[in-house]
Amino acid sequence: MTIATDDLLNSILESLDRIRYVNLDDIPNIDLYMDQVTTFMDEKLRSTTRNPGEDKILTKTMINNYAKNDLLPPPVKKKYSKEHMMILIMIYYFKGVLSFSDIQEILKPITEHYFDKKDGFDLEAIYREVFEFEDVQKEALKADITDKIKHAQGMFEDAPKEDEEFFTVFSLIVQLGFDVYIKRLLIEKLIDGYKQQTTPQQT
Which residue blocks in 95-202 are alpha helix, DSSP H? Predict the structure, then answer.
């Protein structure tokens, strides 16, 4: 590996290490007003943004829009519960890869059946199960990215020497882009399949 490619790999792997899901125990057990919600989300998710000094995490307008469109259960007396916070965190991660309608489709069964459930399998159990899988996924991603970078170095061998570093990065972007494209197609097919199964057939 060249020094630049070593730096690229280390930078990517370090950025993955900095990503942390919002631990369930870190979410306040008390109801919060809107300003407290946006402050909490900003503190916990700021490091996941491309431009930490500029990018918006969740604004008041976004949250109000989610509630208006039945993506988020409405607040009670202008206060948001711990369960609201869990749903907002899920929305935050989904909105980078899915359309608004797809997020509605996948979260609707959760908000309808498990939001504000008092006993048994509830929203906290769902949140914990999904997000604690992150560390396992992260290690698998590190191995995959390392393999992709090694593969990228073997591509474009006939390209001009002075552009070697560019084509390594370009090749890596193409590989990751195709990976994202395929996974998004799979997610959309899963959502469409679920929707077909649950939508009453017209006669």
Answer: 100-113, 123-131, 134-153, 164-198
Instruction: Give the mean pLDDT of 74-101.
Output: 93
Instruction: Average the pLDDT over 63-77 and give the result.
Output: 92
Whether residue 109 contacts residue 126, with contact meaning beta carbons closer than 8 Å, is answered with: no
Helical residues (DSSP H) of 1-59, grouped into ranges:
3-18, 34-45
- Which two tokens mark 62? 């976004």
Q: Distance (Å, rounded) from C-alpha 202 to C-alpha 99?
A: 26
CA–CA dist 84, 92 (Å, integer): 12
Q: What is the torsional sign of CA 78, 79, 81, 83?
A: positive
Cβ within 8 Å of residue 124, ≥6 positions away: 24, 82, 83, 86
What is the predicted pLDDT for the residue at 31?
A: 96
User: Rounded to whole angstroms, how far apart are CA atoms 122 and 99?
Assistant: 26
Q: What is the mean pLDDT of the chain?
A: 87
pTM: 0.84
**pLDDT at 1 > cutoff 60:** no
